[in-house]
Amino acid sequence: MGTLVAGTMAFKTPRPGDTKVVFEGLFSRMRSGGDRATEATPHPEPTVTRPSVGLALGGGAARGFAHIGVLRTLVKHGIVPDVIVGTSIGAVVGGCFAADQLDSIEEWARRLTVRSVLGYLDLNLSGSGIIRGTHLASALEQGLDNRRIEDLKIRFAAIATEFNTGHEIWLTRGRLADALRASYALPGIFPPVKIGGRWLVDGALVNPVPVSAARALDTRLVIAVNLNSDLFGRGTIIPSHGSDESDEPQVPATKSNGFLSLFSGERSLRRQFLGSKGSPGIPTVMVEAFNVMQDRITRARMAGDPADVLISPRLGNVGMFDFHKAAEAIEAGVEATERSIDQIADAITALSQPYIVNGK
User: Fold this and answer.
1) Is residue 88 among the annotated active site residues?
2) Is the pTM for the entire model greater than 0.90?
3) CA-to-CA distance for 149 and 257, rounded, in angstroms?
4) What are the strands, taking DSSP E only, across the chain?
5) How many other β-carbons are positioned within 10 Å of the β-carbon of residue 195?
6) Which residues, in sequence order, are bridge partners of residue 314?
7) Whole-number Å distance between alpha carbons of 189 and 205
8) 26: burial class by Cβ within 10 Å (0-12, 13-18, 19+)?
9) From CA 65, how far away is CA 85, in angstroms rounded?
10) Tens digits of per-residue pLDDT, 50-96?
């Protein structure tokens, strides 16, 4: 029938035989989303990217060797954290892992005995801590070889407390050994450590399981390790209590032996440190009191900012000073992490985001 011309565009009148072809082309484009380019260009396969993983390692003295088992198990399953934040013993183990020294600290921990632990107790008759901590600090420095936090392959932070202000300090630069010493400087036991003009003590005073810090350092998934969750029955209320017949009468303090007491001072201090039958020593009293406070703070902070996955090693049989039980603590860390692996894998899958290669 000819051609209809409108401006520069020409519309050809279709013949009856062309109708089938027109509709087949239309339906084909509808099936492909209306985009003719899809017929010539195949869809690129989406690639899934894993969320950044942060690991928050809590404090707990000798129980902290469980962190070694946690890290070993995570790595075995292909989960290497992008960020590690640690408090106290959590900072020590996490910092050694970030510095590629996990083998060294595990070997050292497994060699500890009751006698060798006593060798690290360089008691101090004066000063701000009853243990100087120089023996332990020397062992740390020897293994870490003057490493700096900013040079580590894994982003790392140690949590400490500025004791005179209560500020929570995130140590993210400087000498790694200094940061670790500050993070585990339990008040009264170890002297405070001066870093950058601030006197710092144990980070568990303000953040025992540093989930908030790990989340703030650009991590999408936070895995936390709480070393004290297995201590059942803590923090309850005893509504009625008082003395009874089983209580021993209080014995008044004996007189000093004068000049001779100066020579027996260290021996007496060792007895006070280790305690005696039925009576706890000075550090036991201090650490257990500190542990009660740490437990309360942990509950409060993790209720407001919970981890995505919480690993809770069963460490009820490992005391705060049972450093000679490293093998038992490490195994508890392994078992707890194995129990949590499926939950971690599910969390990683849920938080993984697909993206198109080359932006197409």
Assistant:
1) yes
2) no
3) 51
4) 3-6, 9-12, 46-49, 53-57, 83-87, 155-162, 168-171, 193-195, 198-202, 221-225, 309-311, 353-356
5) 18
6) none
7) 14
8) exposed
9) 16
10) 899 999 999 998 999 999 999 999 999 999 999 999 999 999 999 99
State how far the Cα of 356 lies from the Cα of 334, in Å rounded to an integer: 37
Question: In which element (H, E) is residue 117 found?
Answer: helix 114-119
Which of 82, 178, 202, 322 is catalytic? The answer is 202
Pairing of strands 168-171, 309-311: unpaired
In the numeric block, which tokens belong to residue 328? 């038992």
Report pLDDT digits (tens) over 341-354.
Answer: 999 999 999 999 77
3-state helix, strand, coil in the chain (%, to 5): 45, 15, 40
> In terms of residues, how long is the chain?
360
Provide the token pair at 278: 């039925």
Q: Residue range 197-201: average pLDDT?
A: 97
Please say whether the beta carbons of 53 and 224 come within 8 A: no
pLDDT tens-digit map of 236-291: 778 888 887 777 666 555 555 554 444 455 555 555 555 555 677 766 777 778 77
Q: Which of 82, 88, 183, 229 is catalytic?
A: 88
End-to-end CA distance of the chain, in Å? 45
Tokens of 124: 């101090």
SS3 339: helix
Q: What is the structure's pLDDT at 297?
A: 87
Instruction: Give Dmax (Cα) for the chain.
Output: 130
Name the 3-class secondary structure at 112.
Answer: coil
**Identity of residue 233:** G
Question: 6: how many CB neighbours lie within 10 A of its CB?
Answer: 7
Residues 289-306 have pLDDT tens digits of 877 888 888 888 888 889
Assess contact for 312 and 336: CB atoms under 8 A.
Answer: yes
| 155 phi/psi in degrees, rounded to 5 | -65, 130
How far apart CA 36 and CA 25 sit, in angstroms, is 10
H-run or E-run covering 106: helix 102-111
